[in-house]
Structure to design on (253 residues):
């Protein structure tokens, strides 16, 4: 609140730069009680709707600082393309620091930026963080990007334990948005659904087998029998699914 008021109502541009430098110093010095300083900086730079002014202020604050120190400031700035453009001018280690530490947010007015955010966070091995910023509207993400995101989450990712925990109904919403997508193959849908059996069908071998049977039977309804004999046919090797004993067909091995 103080930072936002200072930036929008009280201080000149140069005075704001000087204030933010003072607030950044204890953060760079590694002081313990820096939460209020971070709040002040974040409030000030995020309230600046004029992107040119915001860029001037950020560059003014970081003038003469190392790339690593600049990344620590940019982590507090608005999460979006304008900030990422500044991050891209930094060294690779400083860029990695930004993408490893930034707290992602949903960008309400730009689907392309949300897609880019997910791609960049996936590159940083932070799939759960990426999902957190699109969880309320997963249908606005490109289907192939959402597929890779869900698959990466199932494989783990580099987030510390307990960070960006998944919630069942958000995962279900993501699956619903993919179910009707023609952009994914049957193999991709089957592989993804099986990866989330514990989440979508309940834990336990019986639940997993019911899910596997449903997936295979769903595939058999939509796939001509003779196509299963082709080299590109669906098999347990291509989908990663166990073949349930009550399945209506046995894929060609």
């Amino acid at each position: 609140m103080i930072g936002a008021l200072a930036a929008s109502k009280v201080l000149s541009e140069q005075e704001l730069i000087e204030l933010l430098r003072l607030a950044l110093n204890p953060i760079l010095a590694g002081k313990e009680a820096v939460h209020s300083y971070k709040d002040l900086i974040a409030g000030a730079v995020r309230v600046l709707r004029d992107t040119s002014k915001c860029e001037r202020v950020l560059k003014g604050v970081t003038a003469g600082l190392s790339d690593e120190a600049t990344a620590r400031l940019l982590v507090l700035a608005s999460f979006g393309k304008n900030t990422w453009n500044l991050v891209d001018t930094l060294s690779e280690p400083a860029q990695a620091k930004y993408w490893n530490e930034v707290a992602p947010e949903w960008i309400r007015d730009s689907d392309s930026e949300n897609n880019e955010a997910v791609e960049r966070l996936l590159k940083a091995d932070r799939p759960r963080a990426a999902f957190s910023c699109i969880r309320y509207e997963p249908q606005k993400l490109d289907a192939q990007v959402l597929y890779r995101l869900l698959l990466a989450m199932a494989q783990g990712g580099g987030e510390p334990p307990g960070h960006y925990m998944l919630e069942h109904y958000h995962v279900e919403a993501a699956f619903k948005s993919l179910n009707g997508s023609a952009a994914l193959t049957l193999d991709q849908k089957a592989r993804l659904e099986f990866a989330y059996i514990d989440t979508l069908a309940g834990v336990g071998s019986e639940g997993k087998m019911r899910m596997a049977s449903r997936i295979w039977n769903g595939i058999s309804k939509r796939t001509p029998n003779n196509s299963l004999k082709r080299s590109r046919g669906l098999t347990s090797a291509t989908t990663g699914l166990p073949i349930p004993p009550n399945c209506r067909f046995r894929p060609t091995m």
User: Anything to note?
Assistant: The radius of gyration is 24 Å. The mean pLDDT is 80. Residues 1-103 form one domain.
